[in-house]
Amino acid sequence: MRRIPILFWCVLCAAASVPPARGDILHLSGGGLLEGRVTREGEGYRIVTRHGSSVIPSAQVVRLETRPLPEDEYAERAGTLAADDAMGHYALGLWCRQNNLSDQAKTHFETAVRLDPSLEGAWRAMGFLRDGSEWIAPAEYHRRRGEALFDGQWIPLAEAMRRERQRETAAKSARALDEGWPIVVAYARNHGTQDANAVAARLAEYGEGALPLLRRASMERRLPVRRLVILTAARLPERGATDLLLDRLVGETSTDLAVEAAHALAQRPDRNQVANLLMTCIMQSVGRSREVIRGSYGLSVLGDAGVIPALIENIEYSPDVPVAKSAQRAEASGGMTGFDGKEMSVSSSLDGAGPSLSKRYPAQLALKLLTQQDLPPDKVKWTAWWDGAKAEFRLSEKQELLSIRSLDTEAPGPRH
Fold this sequence. Notes:
Layout: H1 6-17, E1 24-28, E2 33-41, E3 44-49, E4 52-57, E5 61-65, H2 70-79, H3 86-98, H4 102-115, H5 120-125, E6 129-131, E7 134-136, H6 138-144, E8 147-150, E9 153-156, H7 157-190, H8 196-204, H9 211-217, H10 223-233, H11 239-251, H12 255-266, H13 271-283, H14 289-302, H15 307-313, H16 323-332, E10 336-337, E11 343-344, H17 357-360, H18 362-371, H19 379-389, H20 397-408
Antiparallel strand pairs: 1-2, 1-5, 2-3, 3-4, 6-7, 8-9, 10-11
Helix pairs in contact: 3-4, 7-9, 8-10, 9-10, 10-12, 11-12, 11-13, 12-14, 13-14, 14-18, 14-20, 15-19
């Protein structure tokens, strides 16, 4: 007795697990069924399926059940269909879909809507969507609504772009950490023989993806590596790089590197943004005079005297006042004002006791450092001084540099 090759049995079983096109059925002695186009061949039956063909010995076949294949039945149905019968074409399209004849189904649905554009079922069967009185493809429908396809889901275009950028940034960050960290390690070992600016330019090629790498490197104890962070961040235009430079200005244990970070911040394209970030840093530095010193130095390097009236506007804000009174004072004065005249917010969690007047009124300490004037935290007095001095006043980075170097040694250590 001839036996069916094992491989073909596997193929036929796989075919049986998928909804097959209807055809002849061989009922096998073992209880199995094989479906396809069957013809008699010698002492057996040749069965042809979409996966191939083979000859089954007659001894293994109990009976043959003949049925037309979908293609044969389709030819018969299509032959009796009137060319102008819209509903007939729609019905035949549905039958074709049920029998895995997708190409023929599409043809009949298209014919149906061409004959009768009001056939909603045919439009929907093709996946079209209604937009007013018009039926359009899904992609065009969502495009008109400002949506884009992202991971199989239609979402607002702006959100899709944000997610795509986020995905690209994550991929770049992973690549930067994988490829860039060895560069940082090699520089740490051989910084005496390597050009720091050349290494920074190489790391900056990773773009925004380099930021996680730089944040990791900023925690290094070795000064050359932390300087490399500043040099690289200065080459990146992203807001995250600005935040990193501000962190280096405020939190850097090395005064020289803090000075370098301040000069890098002064070169950022959005000077108003930098000034507001520095002012926010000053106003939030409760009991941390070193951060006020560093933030003030950053403002002096920025060199725009417009920060003085902004600080005077906030001179009476004190995180030392209880939350309720602090809120009342902020409300009475119209809130905290930024460098660009827009209102800034300072978290009520900043309220707490400060050991000295300058720490209770951070704007006053900043003004003393920037102007060398020793006035109390009184808005009227500071305003009167500014009205008389502003015409000839210039911020002095030289004076501030003396302040940062001398006062850095006296103030409490910065955050890390």
